Amino acid sequence: MVQKWMIQDLKDRLAEQKQDALTEFLARYQPYDLAEMLIELEENEQIRFIAELPIALGAEILEYVDPELQYRILDRGTKETAALLLNEMSSDKVADLLLAIHPHQAATLSELLPADYREKISSLMQYPPESAGSLATVDYIAVRNYWTVEHTLQHVRKVGQDAEMVSYFYVLDNNGKLVGIVSLKQAILAKADSRLEDIMLKDFVSVSARMNQQEVATILSNYDLVALPVITDEQRMIGIITVDDLIDVIHEEATEDFQKMGGSQPLEVPYFKNSFWKLFRKRIGWLLILFVAEAYTGNVLRHFEDTLSEVIALAFFIPLLVGTGGNTGTQTVTTLVRALALGEVKPKNIFRVIRKEVSTGLILGLCMGVATFIRAQILGVGFDIGSVVAVTAIFIVIWASLIAAVLPLVLHKLRVDPAVVSGPFITTLVDGTGLIIYFSLAKLMLNL
Amino acid sequence: MVQKWMIQDLKDRLAEQKQDALTEFLARYQPYDLAEMLIELEENEQIRFIAELPIALGAEILEYVDPELQYRILDRGTKETAALLLNEMSSDKVADLLLAIHPHQAATLSELLPADYREKISSLMQYPPESAGSLATVDYIAVRNYWTVEHTLQHVRKVGQDAEMVSYFYVLDNNGKLVGIVSLKQAILAKADSRLEDIMLKDFVSVSARMNQQEVATILSNYDLVALPVITDEQRMIGIITVDDLIDVIHEEATEDFQKMGGSQPLEVPYFKNSFWKLFRKRIGWLLILFVAEAYTGNVLRHFEDTLSEVIALAFFIPLLVGTGGNTGTQTVTTLVRALALGEVKPKNIFRVIRKEVSTGLILGLCMGVATFIRAQILGVGFDIGSVVAVTAIFIVIWASLIAAVLPLVLHKLRVDPAVVSGPFITTLVDGTGLIIYFSLAKLMLNL
């Protein structure tokens, strides 16, 4: 964890302008920690800090910060440093940076890159956000099937410094098609004169550039891989996606689902980067939809106005009954939406899910029925009303379990994101329908 | 994706008992896919399938299935096959298996392992679940600081086949203390006669065996690593944690938080592995706590019984007003609990969070106030009651935003898991307090 005194120490050493003091400081920390410190410096200190660093370390640190800061540092420093840093950064990060800034600024920055590398990066930039292509880096090691292990390792010694990952070599044919993968482990364990075509893995896992990032993350975690090749429909190699980028995707997707389950649209950037106006826009939509859906509870209550004025005590239990139903529904729906996202539950399992949830709902309902009856007696509303609320509790809990089980699975089947059935959504749905159950039972059981 | 016809194909080939047909089949699929198929086979087919496979592949496939199935296969097959498979499986998976089965069964299985390996595994089994130690595997490559790169690579060629991961070598001193790390990439790029002490990384990231798995996952994702060494308090090397195991942890922790945010206790195993009785036990606790908390809404309503019977129309808006408050609170709380889990928001940011949430709540409240007023006019309850409900909407939304902003941060500060402030929790809290706001405003504004 980066502490205040570390940042102060760094500031002092930068002010002193002694290279030794800085070098000694750098040796003590990891690139990630240095990036965390960089963020806390003043702008002129940031520029000076990056300028003082070895290029490889500077580039690595830059990769940890967000594109705005990357751009500010590259733009304010000298052109030479910017060119060196940009060339050293991994190509997926450069593509992200160029996409995040103004096209004019991006054009100026791109000119610092050699023409062929610039072209590769602009091809990465074509892929839509959240696609496999957009996550790919071109800094992988390409090899040929007729190479020997010895030749390959010599090649790696030459180009390995620039590669994002040297754990795998990708065997391409004359047309740039990916025909096999050799791991560095295999190469080390094989004889020096073995040819790659004899040791390469031909049945490898790869992903299409158009595949959604969530699917890519699932494949990577299922198959326990640390990198995945990305290919075109014609099997042409585009680049690789590394596990560290996919861990970010896994976090991102879980965060999105979290926010959806809470009844807002997902935020695209970390919490504090959103203005209150942005937070407002992400939330007002669902609030209004839920408001309209909830509004008909007014009609329900007005419809039962006579029943209500006759037995005003029925009103006491409205929040308790619909609240309990909403809570049960929320429990079920969050469990199922997550299980669907992880692939633990599939739409075809709907009847198994219904059976499980309704059985659970039945015993939960019985417990809550007893609790409600006791509560009614404590409030002193008598045996009759107590019975009505107890029976209502049982029915509402089972009903909430049922719809919370059915809706996410049906939506998933219809290819609608099941996370739209949020906690607030199910609560709202149970509020209105629960009231109908309540007052219908009351009329029936109290002969009103 | 594994399809039904693939499983049928496998069953047919197993029945035919021709080794060629099986070998041809195996070449077409990844170990993970074969594991998915294994699960679908009959028990006698499972035993036969594993027995027919090369040991290394069999062990890899077994690592993908759950401990019960692992045990059943090891127990029913021959002792020789079981011993070979167990020795080939990675040590963290063996430790997990031995912990999951009955101690008697575990003792019998352990006897199949060589004594020194058995001892290493039983030391891994001491660490509590969810700790770094429990995730560690001892199948890493240990090296000495005076070795040359050439000697090291020779050593790797000898032992590399058994290692879980060959991307890093761990430099241990005479006492088993970890003093440095050399990556395979570094070794390949260095000169053959370089000594490891000259190229090894001395300031490496490591974790203590007692560290919680969530913290380990955060470190691994922040520092973009693919493996982390686990050490004792005395810097002694215990083993390594690999990125694939930590991806499982990341999924697990997000799932737990999901279920907590939905107001249940987290399930320890995938959805369908829980009996309905288990689901019931995970849910009833919070339901009853929330029931008790919600029950006082009855007291609030009885307290305002006179107001209510005088203006029965006030009852029409109860679900709408408390529902809207609950929805706003749920939106805020899910966003913040997730942001806290990712470290985007820290408890010290509390005033910044309050400012942001209350500003957002203010404009959300104004919008909902207008909506409520319009809804009241449509229901035809008159200007007076319309004004009461509109003003109440504004206050309830701001109030819900405020407590939903404060509670998770305060709990986090008090080292209580902020995810206990679930959607249902905040909804319940807003129900009761919202009613007090509503009826107090009604009495005040309508002079009741």
UniProtKB/TrEMBL annotation, chains A, B:
<keyword id="KW-0813">Transport</keyword>
<keyword id="KW-1003">Cell membrane</keyword>
<feature type="transmembrane region" description="Helical">
    <location>
        <begin position="385"/>
        <end position="407"/>
    </location>
</feature>
<keyword id="KW-0472">Membrane</keyword>
<protein>
    <recommendedName>
        <fullName>Magnesium transporter MgtE</fullName>
    </recommendedName>
</protein>
<dbReference type="InterPro" id="IPR006667">
    <property type="entry name" value="SLC41_membr_dom"/>
</dbReference>
<feature type="transmembrane region" description="Helical">
    <location>
        <begin position="419"/>
        <end position="441"/>
    </location>
</feature>
<feature type="transmembrane region" description="Helical">
    <location>
        <begin position="358"/>
        <end position="379"/>
    </location>
</feature>
<keyword id="KW-0129">CBS domain</keyword>
<feature type="transmembrane region" description="Helical">
    <location>
        <begin position="313"/>
        <end position="337"/>
    </location>
</feature>
<keyword id="KW-0460">Magnesium</keyword>
<keyword id="KW-1133">Transmembrane helix</keyword>
<dbReference type="InterPro" id="IPR046342">
    <property type="entry name" value="CBS_dom_sf"/>
</dbReference>
<dbReference type="Pfam" id="PF01769">
    <property type="entry name" value="MgtE"/>
</dbReference>
<dbReference type="Pfam" id="PF00571">
    <property type="entry name" value="CBS"/>
</dbReference>
<comment type="similarity">
    <text>Belongs to the SLC41A transporter family.</text>
</comment>
<dbReference type="InterPro" id="IPR006668">
    <property type="entry name" value="Mg_transptr_MgtE_intracell_dom"/>
</dbReference>
<keyword id="KW-0812">Transmembrane</keyword>
<keyword id="KW-0479">Metal-binding</keyword>
<dbReference type="InterPro" id="IPR038076">
    <property type="entry name" value="MgtE_N_sf"/>
</dbReference>
<comment type="function">
    <text>Acts as a magnesium transporter.</text>
</comment>
<feature type="domain" description="CBS">
    <location>
        <begin position="200"/>
        <end position="256"/>
    </location>
</feature>
<dbReference type="InterPro" id="IPR006669">
    <property type="entry name" value="MgtE_transporter"/>
</dbReference>
<dbReference type="Pfam" id="PF03448">
    <property type="entry name" value="MgtE_N"/>
</dbReference>
<dbReference type="GO" id="GO:0015095">
    <property type="term" value="F:magnesium ion transmembrane transporter activity"/>
</dbReference>
<feature type="transmembrane region" description="Helical">
    <location>
        <begin position="284"/>
        <end position="301"/>
    </location>
</feature>
<dbReference type="GO" id="GO:0046872">
    <property type="term" value="F:metal ion binding"/>
</dbReference>
<dbReference type="InterPro" id="IPR000644">
    <property type="entry name" value="CBS_dom"/>
</dbReference>
<comment type="subunit">
    <text>Homodimer.</text>
</comment>
<dbReference type="InterPro" id="IPR036739">
    <property type="entry name" value="SLC41_membr_dom_sf"/>
</dbReference>
<dbReference type="GO" id="GO:0005886">
    <property type="term" value="C:plasma membrane"/>
</dbReference>
